[in-house]
Amino acid sequence: MTVAAMQRPPKVARQSAAQGVRLALSGDWTLIASQRLEEEGRRIVEEARLDRTIAIDLSQVSQLDTAGAWLINRARHDLARRDVAVTLEHVRPEYSTLLDETRYRDFAAPSRPRFNVFFVLLADFGESIVDALREFYRGVGFLGEFVSSMIYVAANPRRFRLTSLVAQIELVGFRSVPIIVLINILVGGIVAQQGIFQLLKFGASSYTVSLIGILVLRELGVLLTSIMIAGRSGSAITAELGSMKMREEVDALLVMGLSPFEVLIAPRVLGLVISLPILTFVADMAALFGGMLVAWWYGGISPAAFASLLKEAIALHTFLVGIIKAPFMALVIGLIASMDGLATQGSAESLGRQVTSSVVKSIFMVIVMDGVFAVFFAAIDY
Amino acid sequence: MTNASAHANDAAQPRPNRDVIISVRDLVVGFGDKTIVKGLNLDVYRGEVLGVVGGSGQGKSVLTRTILGLTPKRSGSVQVFGQNRDMLPPLERRALEQRWGVLFQNGALFSGLTVKQNIQMPMRETRDLSERLMDELALLKLELVGLNPDAADKFPSELSGGMVKRAALARALALDPELVFLDEPTSGLDPISAAEFDALIGTLQQTLGLTVFMVTHDLDSLYSICDRVAALAEGRVIAAGPLETLLASDHPWLKAYFHGVRGGRLTAARVEQKDEQWKPAPTTP
Ligand SMILES: Nc1ncnc2c1ncn2[C@@H]1O[C@H](COP(=O)(O)OP(=O)(O)OP(=O)(O)O)[C@@H](O)[C@H]1O
Ligand SMILES: [Mg+2]
Q1: pTM above the 0.80 mark?
Q2: Are A93 and B141 in contact (CB < 8 Å)?
Q3: Which residues of chain B neighbour A94 with C-beta distances below 8 Å?
């Protein structure tokens, strides 16, 4: 039998007796009755509001909980305000304690000031700009703190946490290899297919190889890897540091005289800085391999021909342009992830927000940086 | 002899027809190759306050979580409200779960919700009430547990440890449950608040006919509000009964617990003033 089935619904009945009018309450005055309970509470007031005196008889009430008692008390209060004198009759001792505990009090919520929607919108806009600037300012400060702690570690190599660093390299670098290889093979293949298909119209499909070589080595390898790592490892770093912050683990480090930069952030950021160039190299190779396969099957360019065309199209610097960018991307991803992690407030919701913001910001910054590098390399003609 | 001790004696010989609300039989719980609870038997009667004591790490929290169905058991049976939770269809299991309230050892308030929203959560999800009534009930519950109304709009991370305990109790009581599980409700409270907390639980138990399953290290709570005490050691209940029986026991751990440095001081003091012992008296209107 379910709870609901055992329920006796709350009821109010008006009775005229010799001593005057009385309201007999009956049933379970408990929260299980939900709306019914509220309605009956209102009915007490409705039934009695025109009387001078009223007696409320509780002898038939089979169950009473705080909600029921509260509603009875609220009705009594409402009636008293209309100058109806209310008396309670046949109150069991345990009900009377409960009725005492829940006597009426005014819980008028403090009304919040309301603003014009337009001003709110404007204020929000202004606030978000100020926030963005403040964020940038904090980011620069964060970078400074990171660099100074790195200098400190360089001066005291014994403080360096090698185990932690190796663990990070395994986590960030080694374990990302399969997914990075996979997407880069696919992207290399797609670029090859499109190159062959489009360039065929000009009878220039053999240029596909130099297209693949230059595009992949200069841009795509490093970009795809950075974006992948920002999503995969940046989010993990933010979540990890954020939950440590929430549970006061970061504070515990601070009061032990340890710096979160040295203990938590340096190994993570350094792990990224070391892993990302290696992953970029892996990504380059995978994309070239994917391109080679598609060129072979789809474009009829044999691997040997592909290799010799590639050799003509690229030089060492083509490859270096991509690799040089990788550590900078890693630094940006690592610092944004750590900074957002440490900015987490107490709630689980805030942690979720920080992780999202970390991933979005680092992907954005990776693309911006790539653009800056493109301008820079064009300027120095590299 | 006062009311209080008469009450205690009453519980000394549990009448066979007393309504059993939780019954645990031959319970075994373990993690990996470690067995924490080894064949435990325990009955909790309707309307009583049962104190569960035991050394740190003896499995009090694990027992509580197993009764609640949060930790899987290896063998044995747990019946709550005369029903075996594992056998129930989902809908009835939910109905059963709405009849108990739980105060976790560390509060377990939802960090993304304010205190008021935390208390309203069970009402909002399972009952159909007006916003006004929910607001009033939440604030009433807050006042019952001794929190200021300004705490209502605070987030859990903005509360002190004791406030978290109170807010969590208010949430546990949101639906006026028949049975509440309290895991160390008074730890982290100052002595005055702890005494108020005890008094509150006593009052609620009397007014709502609440059954309380309370894990505690607080000897004062044991003395003042527990009808029966169950002592946990070596994965079993080594003794269960009114405090007097446990005090008289000569199990080494119980002796150390009640007659050691701290326990002894309190026990001596309590035995002297036993007749003035606090017990929530039914207030007259
Ligand atoms: N999820 C888990 N996995 C492995 N072991 C656990 C787990 N939860 C609890 N334990 C172990 O079970 C034992 C009992 O823990 P429990 O939390 O029940 O102790 P307790 O009696 O509540 O102690 P305290 O008074 O300190 O709260 C401990 O040895 C603990 O290490
Ligand atoms: Mg515990």
Answers
A1: no
A2: no
A3: 206-207, 209, 282
- In angstroms, the first-to-last Cα distance of chain B is 25
Q: Which amino acid is at B110?
A: F
Q: Is residue A125, in this structure, part of any structural domain at all?
A: no
Which residue in A34, A74, A97 is closest to B282 by CB distance? A97
- Specify the 3-state DSSP secondary structure of A61: strand
Task: Please give the residue that has the higher pLDDT: either A59 or A226.
Answer: A226
Taking the C-alpha atoms of residue B170 and residue B186, their distance in angstroms, rounded to an integer, is: 14
- CA distance readout (Å), B35 to A221, B42, B149: 52, 18, 45
Question: Partners of B78 in the beta sheet?
Answer: B24
To test the pocket of ligand 1, the residue of B36, B214, B232 to mutate (highest count of ligand atoms within 8 Å of its CB) is B36
Residues of B with CB under 8 A from a CB of A: 91-92, 95, 98-99, 110-112, 123, 127-130, 133, 135-137, 139-141, 143-144, 149, 155-158, 173, 175-176, 203, 206-209, 282-285
Same domain, A81 and A228: no
Ligand found nearest the CA of B30: 1
Q: Output the pLDDT for position A293.
A: 95
Is residue A136 assigned to a domain?
no
Q: Which of A31, A100, A105 sits opposite B283 (nearest CB)?
A: A100
Interface test with B, best of A347, A350, A353, A354 (most B CBs within 10 A): A347
Q: Do A107 and B158 touch (CB under 8 A)?
A: no
Contact B133 A101 (CB under 8 A): no
Most confident of A15-29, A368-382, B216-230: A368-382
d(CA A44, CA B234): 57
CATH code of the domain covering residue A27 = 3.30.750.24
Determine contact: A74 vs chain B, CB below 8 A: yes
A245 part of a folded domain: yes
The per-residue pLDDT for range A220-260, each reduced to its tens digit, is 999 999 999 999 999 999 999 999 998 889 988 888 878 88
Ligand 1 atom with least separation from CA of B31 = 4
Mean model confidence pLDDT for chain B: 82
A273 token code pair:
């800085």
Could you tell me which residues come within 8 angstroms of residue A120 by beta carbon, excluding any fewer than 6 positions away? none
pLDDT in tens, B34-58: 999 999 999 999 889 999 998 888 8
Phi/psi at A54 (5° precision): -145, 145
Number of domains composing chain A: 2
Task: Identify the domain containing residue A16 by its residue range.
Answer: 4-101
Beta-carbon contacts of A64 under 8 Å, excluding residues fewer than 6 positions away, are: A29, A30, A58, A95, A98
Distance CA A303, CA A308 (A): 9
Where is the domain boundary, A101, A133, A160?
A101
Closest CA of chain B from A41, distance in Å = 11
Place of tokens 């038939």: A60
Instruction: Tell me if A242 is assigned to some domain.
Output: yes
ipTM above 0.85, yes or no: no
